[in-house]
Amino acid sequence: MNDSKNKLIDIATLFLKLGTIGFGGPAVHIAMMHDEVVIKRKWMSNEYFLDLVGATNLIPGPNSTEMAMHCGNDQAGIKGLIVAGACFILPAALITGIIAWSYQVYGHLPEVQPYIIGIPPAIIAIIAISLFRLGRTAVKNYELAVLGTIAFVFCIVGINEIIALFGVGFLGIVLGMLRRSKTMNSFIPILLLQHYDGSISTLFIVFLKIGGILYGSGYVLFAFLDAEFVQSGIMSRQQLIDAIAVGQITPGPVFSAATFVGWQLGGMWGSVAATVGIFLPSFVFVGLLNPLIPKLRKSVLLASFLDAVNVAAIGVIASVLYSMGLEVMGNWKAVIITIGSMGVLYYFRNLNTVVIVLGGAIIGYLLTYV
Predict the structure, then answer these.
(1) Are 346 and 356 contained in the same domain?
(2) pTM (2 decimals)?
(3) What is the residue range of 33's domain?
(4) CA proximity to 246, closest of 268, 269, 218, 273
């Protein structure tokens, strides 16, 4: 009993620390976890850690948060899974909640506007470079390039991002089946099509839906938020861009941007509903699928689905980048900040994105005097 308690305390201490200092996105988070659980604590072998990294790509949700859950589960079962996930999420959610409250009070005052105008171009640069790097990994062949283009066109013409992702994903399965010349029973995913109607309960359901079906990088989240709240007129695109910025400058998972959006729409309880809704599916998926990881990773058809969904996610991100670009890139100052930020990110691969966001804010302020 004592040993079990000590393990949970160790897990909580570790992931609270990582959730507090983990700036820089999923790749950085996973690298930090590797250093802590494999190198320093020797909780698992390097090979098993890599197996878990691969497993996070088999299920929807934020990869680094799910890695925290896998590590906790490996040490202390379901209790460890819950403690690790909650402790990794909590610091980001609390910090984002405070920023969201401050944003409602100060975000549109003249004193901060000169700084805010430089942030959207910097965010566009971050997304563009991320898109470039993800695309080089995801687009493995001509077929996947076509599937990604289809997803991009779907989104541009107004087809829902959920339909684009899953439609292209199942098209990938069909192509995989044709390559293998085998058949299988078809199935139709049950999609939660609930849309936000102003209540806390539907806000929870919308974010539960997003958390339950979102494959790919954290930037795909912003495509879903764009479809759910911006295109329906509930939020402005500027608010969405500010949510992305908050996700970048706070530690922990980028998905904590949901906390920011929830606060803008429903205050404190809205932020709680959005946060719980978007992360809850990951706890369930990791708990259910962890024992099945070896079998799932060997499935050829599942691999075809994931390849297609990943490249569809690239198309979805590209469509959001296109829409944001049309709205933001209307003056030479925005163009300068965007191009400069992209250059810095391209040549300094390990540079923390917080530097880019803050740099964009400062340069935007300085350019107001030109």
Answers:
(1) yes
(2) 0.70
(3) 2-88
(4) 218
